[in-house]
Design a protein that fits this description.
This protein is mostly beta strands and about 80 residues long. Helices cover about 0% and strands about 35% of the residues. The chain contains no helices and seven strands. The strands form two sheets. The chain has a four-stranded antiparallel sheet, with no helix packed on it. It has a three-stranded antiparallel sheet with strand order 5-6-7, with no helix packed on it. The N and C termini lie far apart (about 30 Å).
């Protein structure tokens, strides 16, 4: 095992998003999306978009797509550039 990361989520109901550079994007139960450094397991950033039961997709250009449901989201899809 290379590293572990503790997140504010009881269980994953879907796969996390993975960017072309290896960054791992996971939701947490507070309606946020967290970016994890693939080399160290450290949190790169957390944004108030997404949700605990929504899938995260990453485009070929690295754009992260999360379904609305986080704080301030009103349905639909949010994009994080």
């Amino acid at each position: 095992m290379k590293w572990r990361v503790k997140v504010n989520l009881d269980a994953f109901q879907h796969d996390p998003g993975v960017a072309p550079d290896g960054t791992i994007y996971i939701p947490n139960k507070f309606g946020q999306t967290q970016a994890i450094n693939p080399a160290t397991g450290a949190t790169r950033w957390i944004v108030p978009f997404g949700g605990d039961s929504q899938s995260i997709s990453v485009g070929a250009d690295g754009t992260v797509y999360v379904a609305g449901g986080g704080a301030g989201a009103i349905g639909g899809t949010d994009a994080i550039s």
